[in-house]
């Protein structure tokens, strides 16, 4: 069994350079690879194209990379709660490709499965379909979308083993599973790293074959993007 473990986040991110395309798991602030994002900020890597559902908030997650002007282009499904993302997009400082959320997920999954392109009805008749091949299937028009071509995919899991097998917890699973194995190199940061063979095979969500490097993260903040509490009367 191949050991995918690396000692720390610095070793895990070896090879990430200016101008690369990087997938980052998470939804808002839920399930984001906090340690890896913080290290990319510290490395001051620039001109990045980031594929992520959104860009977190202004002072956390991918918002930290936006604040430092390290992202050249965002490929996302919505702007979210990030005012800086919105400002840079509207001012033309940031190139943005907004695509339907299901299409975003499927473009990741297709890359993971080695499928170069697929047809979807989402976006037909809108700006999303401009310049793309369109075909009719069963009386309904569909738009052809291409799988992503990313250099690195960085995902976050609750638990993993040294062989790269991953288990996610609750809604923190979100985009992480479909991004694992969807790039040339996949990095997994986990809250708990155990010896290979320690995980119950029936509980594994992503097999280690889709992961190239794995490390145990630390000091997770796990911020809540929108806190909703019940009013006490």
H/I helix tally: 6
> Mean pLDDT, nearest integer?
95
Percentage of β-strand residues:
25-35%
Q: Estimate the helix proportion, in percent.
A: 10-25%
In one word, what is the shape?
Answer: globular
Poorly predicted spans: none
CATH topology: Glutaconate Coenzyme A-transferase
Number of strands: 11
Distance between the termini: 58 Å
Number of domains: 1
CATH superfamily: Glutaconate Coenzyme A-transferase
**Major β-sheet profile:** 8 strands, mixed
- Computed CA radius of gyration, to the nearest angstrom: 18 Å
Structural class: alpha/beta
The H-and-E topology, N to C, reads as: HEHEHEHEHEEEEEHEE
Task: Explain the overall architecture.
- With 233 residues, the protein is an alpha/beta fold.
- The chain has a single domain, classed as 3-Layer(aba) Sandwich (Glutaconate Coenzyme A-transferase), CATH 3.40.1080.
- Helix content is 20%, strand content 27%.
- The chain has six helices and eleven strands.
- Strands 1, 2, 3, 4, 8, 9, 10 and 11 form an eight-stranded mixed β-sheet that branches. The protein has a three-stranded antiparallel β-sheet with strand order 5-7-6.
- Helix 3 links the parallel strand 2 and strand 3.
- The longest helix is centred in the middle third of the chain and has 13 residues.
- The model has no long low-confidence stretch (mean pLDDT 95).
- This is 3-oxoacid CoA-transferase subunit A.
- It comes from Flavobacterium xueshanense.
- Belongs to the 3-oxoacid CoA-transferase subunit A family.
- One of its GO terms (molecular function) is CoA-transferase activity.
- Keywords: Transferase.
């Amino acid at each position: 069994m191949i050991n995918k473990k690396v000692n720390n986040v610095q070793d895990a991110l070896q090879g990430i350079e200016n101008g690369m395309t990087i997938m980052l798991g998470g939804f808002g602030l839920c399930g984001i690879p906090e340690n890896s994002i913080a290290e990319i900020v510290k490395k001051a890597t620039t001109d990045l194209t980031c594929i992520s559902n959104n860009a977190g908030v202004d002072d956390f997650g991918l918002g930290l990379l936006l604040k430092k002007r390290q992202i050249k282009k965002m490929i996302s499904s919505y702007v979210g709660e990030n005012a800086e993302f919105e400002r840079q997009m509207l001012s033309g400082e940031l190139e943005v490709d907004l695509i339907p959320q299901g299409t975003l997920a499927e473009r990741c999954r297709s890359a993971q499965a080695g499928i170069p392109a697929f047809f979807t009805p989402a976006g037909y008749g809108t700006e999303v379909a401009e310049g793309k091949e369109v075909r009719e299937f069963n009386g309904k028009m569909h738009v052809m979308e291409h799988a992503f071509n990313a250099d690195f995919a960085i995902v976050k899991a609750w638990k993993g083993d040294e062989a790269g097998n991953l288990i996610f917890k609750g809604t923190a699973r979100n985009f992480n599973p479909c991004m694992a194995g969807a790039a040339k190199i996949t990095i997994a940061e986990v809250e708990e790293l155990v010896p290979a063979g320690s995980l119950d095979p029936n509980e594994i969500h992503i097999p280690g074959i889709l992961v190239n490097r794995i490390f145990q993260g630390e000091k997770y903040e796990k911020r809540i993007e929108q806190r909703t509490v019940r009013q006490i009367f």
